[in-house]
Every structure is written in structure tokens, then in C-alpha cells.
Design a protein that fits this description.
Number of strands: 0
Helix content: over 70%
Strand content: under 5%
Oligomer: single chain
């Protein structure tokens, strides 16, 4: 198996596991809600795929940075910058999840 095929399979597996994990985590946080297929599909498309994409791209970028860059100082600086960006993206993702929940609660009150 070539490196590209192996990396592609690992990336797809990480993406799928992250999507399933984030979906399960989001559903388990608010166990009081009534689950339907439409609600689960909405959670997957609007929350889980975004979180899985952030996780997968971050891990893939770390892998390629460590493979391609041999200068330890440059690698350290780039990994530090990537960590800061990842923290910012994680913060943005949690704010997005919180606002998504508020929007869902407001739309249910109006009905």
C-alpha cells in the first residue's frame, strides 16, 4: 500500500470516528430532547461534520509538518502556531454549538 493510500484511509477513519464521537457526545449532553431521524441528521450535518473536519485537518497538518520540516526550531514555531489556531477553532466550535442549541430552543418555543 502506498503512502498516499495509507494516509487517505487513516484520514477517512479519523474523520468518521470524529463525526460519530461528536454526534454521540452532543446527543448525550442533552438527553432530555426527543430524538428523531431529522434531528440526528441536523446534528450530524451542522455540528459533527464541522468538528470532525477541524480535528482531521489539524491531525493531518501536524503529521505532514513533522514529516516535511526537519529544522526543529521552525517545526516548534509552526506547531505552536497550529496549537494556538486549534485552541481558537475549538473555542469557536463550542460557541457555535452553544448558539445552535439556543437557536433550537427558541424555535421550539415559538411553535
Amino acid at each position: 500500500m502506498t503512502d498516499f493510500k495509507k494516509n487517505s484511509i487513516i484520514t477517512i477513519v479519523i474523520f468518521i470516528i470524529s463525526t460519530i464521537g461528536i454526534t454521540y457526545w452532543y446527543i448525550s449532553i442533552d438527553s432530555s430532547q426527543n430524538l428523531s431521524t431529522k434531528k440526528i441528521f441536523t446534528i450530524v450535518t451542522q455540528i459533527s461534520l464541522i468538528g470532525a473536519l477541524i480535528t482531521t485537518l489539524s491531525l493531518l497538518l501536524i503529521y505532514y509538518l513533522t514529516k516535511k520540516i526537519k529544522n526543529i526550531w521552525l517545526l516548534s514555531c509552526l506547531l505552536f502556531i497550529l496549537a494556538v489556531i486549534f485552541i481558537f477553532l475549538t473555542y469557536w466550535f463550542f460557541i457555535y454549538m452553544f448558539n445552535f442549541e439556543l437557536n433550537e430552543a427558541e424555535s421550539l418555543k415559538m411553535r
